[in-house]
Amino acid sequence: MSTTQTPTLEVTPRTKIGTRYAKRDRAAGLIPAVIYGHKKGAVHVTVDAKAFTEILHDESHLIDIQLDGKNEHTLVKAVQWDTFGTHVIHVDLERVDLSETIEVEVEIQLVGEPAALKEAGTVLDNPTTMVKISCRADAIPSHLEHDISELPLGEPVTVGDLTPPAGVTIVMPEEQMICQIAGVKVSAAVTEALEGGDDAGDAEPEVIGKDKEAAGDSE
Question: E strands of 116-173, at which residues?
Fold first, then answer.
């Protein structure tokens, strides 16, 4: 849950804006991007696709941008992917002051291998994979970890169970469910279908051991 070192990325101003020119940039291994915020005008730039993708894989939220010999601290505000979700096609970068408090979403990483999940007919229900936090821009953790190695069947892990690092506040309802180990049993309809009933196509597995109220809060 420690913060990562802020990467540096050199960008180049875009002199021509439009779909045709954006396609040319992407074909050349560049990603169109826009830098905005802090009462300064928006600047259209291109960033190296390979370098930016590596930054995303390192779970970095902040990037030090070098433009025309000047350095600016920016937050990765939005990333647009292609239809297949394999290539970044546009990036929004928001200028930030490292001392200001901001809100950002980070990934929840579940660690450990609970014994309950090794039992036959159990599944891990994980509806919430990101958590919104508030902290200084220079203290954004790459992710939040939660150990589920001792998690029993049917007991939900909620946002309130997470332990953020010092200086980080979670700004989501504490009762929102993150995950739960649920047991799956064959319903009477499925049993009847297996015995030759006519409604085999309509039968669905029934999930048990699931806190209905907690599940409702996660929607």
Answer: 122-125, 130-136, 143-147, 157-158, 169-170
